[in-house]
Amino acid sequence: MAESDNPIFRIADRAAGLRASGFDVISLAAGEPEAPTATHIVEAAVTAARDPRTHHYGPAAGLADLRERVAAQHPDHVTADHVQITIGTKHALHLALGALAGPGEEVLVLRPSWPGHVGAVESVGASVVPVLVDRDGLTSVDALEAARTPRTRAVVVANPSNPSGVLHPAGLLAEIAAWCVDKDVWLVSDEVYGGLVFDADPFSATAVVADSSRLVVVDGVSKVHAMTGWRVGWLLGPTEVVAAARAQVSATITHVPSITQYAALAALTAPVDADTVADYRASRDLLVGKLAQVPGVECPTPAGGMFAFPDVSKLLSAEHPTAAELAAWLLDEAHVAVVSGEVFGDDGTLRISFALDQERLTEAADRLVSALTKAGS
Ligand SMILES: Cc1ncc(COP(=O)(O)O)c(C=O)c1O
User: Fold this and answer.
1) Domains in the chain and their CATH numbers?
2) Which residue, by CA, sits nearest to atom 14 of ligand 1?
3) CB 27 within 8 A of CB 349
4) Counting runs of H as helices and runs of E as strands, what totals does the chain give?
5) Which one, of 354, 360, 355, 341, lies nearest residue 297 by Cα?
6) Does the N terminus or the C terminus of the chain have fewer Cβ atoms within 10 A?
7) pLDDT tens-digit readout, 156-176
């Protein structure tokens, strides 16, 4: 999809235009926290920039300390040898899929899902086979088996999901992983929102699967640590996949810039502030609670991530026939930017971020409640 066709960019452009005309626009459209990166992380980068060791080439694999730190978040059988540092989670997805699939082969992608999963599969020349999630936003071994062909090489599951915030529970993930081993299909577990889980303990697929021989985890510091612009992520999996990814990194970018790797190391060294997750949970509850006041809107409570994903199909009408048109109207009417579900493969929904301070979120949510109530009446 060209950027100009992407509803997220269209909404962002319109929001910028309204702001330039002096309107108080609140954006709940971005897929990133509004907060800046924590000071201790920024300071670690400044210190690293002053250290001449970062002024020269480093290892293609990524800094040993960072790889060890990543491995330490996983069960003991995962070591630094199973980790490749990448330019963000998106790069890790591209490298993982490049190692696992190619032209003429298929990758199962859940729908709705973050469009980057489709883009990553296409970037390696493989074909996307969409697998619709069930009413609860989950997939199952039966749904995956129905979509599998002899060309299927991998399935991508984000846990929790963007846009729905649905979390595949540990037992279900373990079943899917076992099916993958049985069918020689790789499970690519996207855990970039894995630290933002609200009603349960967070877990990685590495901790719940019995056999990790067909498991690759992609993750990064972008979301949980408010570091989207720093571009540090990683891929974690069997050494043959890591070696293929490393060869690509070495042949293309040489390695991820050392300064940002030191920033990521600082992020992973201090535990995620319990208040951060509690704040996200409170923001989720605030937004979901407000949306529940709108007749006709159904908003499941997201188990994790940073988005509510309400079904607004009952509000669609001759005036606002699609969720995209409703989102455009909400921007004009309420000066609140949200993303329509079509970009994720679901036409009757909106994706609404709650990753901003609660005062602004309350203001935005109140505006949405009155505008959506008006749209439905
Ligand atoms: C599910 C999912 N995976 C990966 C990414 C990309 O993360 P990064 O910024 O680390 O490349 C995003 C970004 O929105 C996402 O939503």
Assistant:
1) 3-30+273-376 (3.90.1150.10), 39-269 (3.40.640.10)
2) 31
3) no
4) 12, 12
5) 341
6) C
7) 999 999 999 999 999 999 999
DSSP state of 304: B
Spacing, Cα 91 to ligand 1 middle (Å): 9
DSSP, res 80: G
Listed in sequence order, the DSSP H helices in 292-349 are 323-334
Q: How far apart are CA 33 and CA 342, in angstroms?
A: 22
Residue ranges with strand state E in 193-318: 215-220, 233-236, 307-308
Probe ligand 1: pick from 6, 70, 87, 90, max atoms within 8 Å of CB? Answer: 90
pLDDT digits (tens, 9 = 90+) for 319-351: 999 999 999 999 999 999 999 999 999 989 999
**Which atom of ligand 1 lies at the shortest distance from residue 233's CA?**
10
Calculate Rg over the CA atoms of the chain.
21
Ligand 1 touching residue 233 (CB < 6 A)? yes
Backbone angles phi, psi at 144, to 5 degrees: -70, -40
133-145 per-residue burial string, b: 16 or more CB within 10 A, e: under 16:
beeebbbbeebbe
Strand-pairing partners, residue 26, are 336
Task: Tell me how far apart the alpha carbons of residues 305 and 218 are, in angstroms, rounded to a whole number.
Answer: 16
